[in-house]
Amino acid sequence: MKSYTPDFHIQTAENLKAALVLLGSTKVKWKPIAGGTDLMVLFEAGKLPQGHYLNIWGLKELKGIKETSTEIEIGALTTYSEILENVLIQKEFSLLCEAARLTGAVAIQNRGTLGGNIVNASPAADSPPALLVYETEVELVSTKGSRWITYSDFHKAYKKMEIRSDELLTRIRIKRNTQGTQQYYRKVGTRKAQAISKVCIAALAKNNAGTISKFRLAFGSVAATPLRCVKTEQVIEGQKLTPALIDKCIVELSKEISPIDDIRSNKVYRALVAANLLRDFLGHL
Ligand SMILES: Cc1cc2nc3c(=O)[nH]c(=O)nc-3n(C[C@H](O)[C@H](O)[C@H](O)COP(=O)(O)OP(=O)(O)OC[C@H]3O[C@@H](n4cnc5c(N)ncnc54)[C@H](O)[C@@H]3O)c2cc1C
Fold first, then answer.
1. Ligand 1 centroid vs 112 CA: distance in angstroms?
2. Which residues line ligand 1 (CB under 6 A)?
3. Which CATH number fits the domain that encloses residue 259?
4. 31, 55, 79: which is the final residue of a domain?
């Protein structure tokens, strides 16, 4: 059943400062709405809680992609289409580009934002594994100030995050240290577009004449949150890549992930696919 529109109060914030003042208000609890591609689905289904929604879509302070010689900074309101068009992201951060290309279809890519994807905190979302592999940092801002946290500390448990209700996620920062790495992103879903992942993998490795000097690995849809697989990384990093090591790595992965049965897939299939994808990447290094 659809939601009843008069039960919702929506206000547009003119600038970041005004938005933060409203979010910090003790009288009314405001919830940000960016592209609305997650929230409007809930609204249509009658599952969006009634209340006060703060439209942040127009905030210039949260838009745009900036580059320096050492890092790239992506505004939280950056859409997937903007990510796809960015030459630096195409060249150095192909995992993020692939995640954007495989998110929804063009309409969603034009409206959905990277910040919204992060804060919506679906374990099946497609960008988080890429962001985890790049050891991204995110900025959280309130009237009390700004704090940068490592993205791997953001997701605490299913839909539980390190963000207060008076804070906005404003920027996403990634170090430009992918030179000489091989990057691998795969999304397994029911269709090529408009499909929620059954499993998705993002991985990055540096192979120095057979020794893997750097290895980063993350998955979507195999745990209650997007998951960086640090223990599996440790099996490989600094080692000579051999078939026996790959087998060891697959065993470690099976201990680190905890997929579930749901309407999209089941835990046995998800575990098998995750292992196969990792084996595929390692086999091509
Ligand atoms: C048809 C369809 C297909 C989709 N396909 C995919 C897919 O393939 N892969 C995928 O990962 N997702 C998919 N999605 C989900 C959605 O499009 C993404 O998660 C998108 O990135 C959400 O961004 P948004 O700006 O629209 O978020 P909104 O709906 O505006 O907000 C989502 C949540 O984030 C919060 N929020 C948003 N911005 C901020 C901010 N800056 N600071 C603090 N809180 C904030 C909101 O309060 C809300 O809780 C799909 C959705 C639809 C409708």
1. 6
2. 31-39, 41, 62, 76, 103-104, 108, 112-113, 115-117, 119-120, 125-126, 168-169, 194
3. 3.30.390.50
4. 55
Nearest to 188 by CA among 259, 282, 284: 259
What is the CATH classification number for the domain harbouring 69?
3.30.465.10
Question: Which residue range is the domain that position 108 belongs to?
Answer: 61-175
* Segments in the chain forming alpha helices (H): 16-23, 39-44, 80-85, 87-92, 94-101, 106-111, 114-120, 127-133, 230-236, 243-256, 267-283
- Asked if residue 97 and residue 69 are part of one domain, the reply reads yes
Q: Are residues 153 and 95 in the same domain?
A: yes
Please tell me the predicted confidence (pLDDT) of residue 195: 82
What residues are paired with 207 via a beta bridge?
Answer: 212
For the full predicted model, state whether its pTM sits above 0.90: yes
- Give the tens place of pLDDT for each residue, 180-226: 999 999 999 988 778 888 999 999 999 999 999 999 999 999 999 99
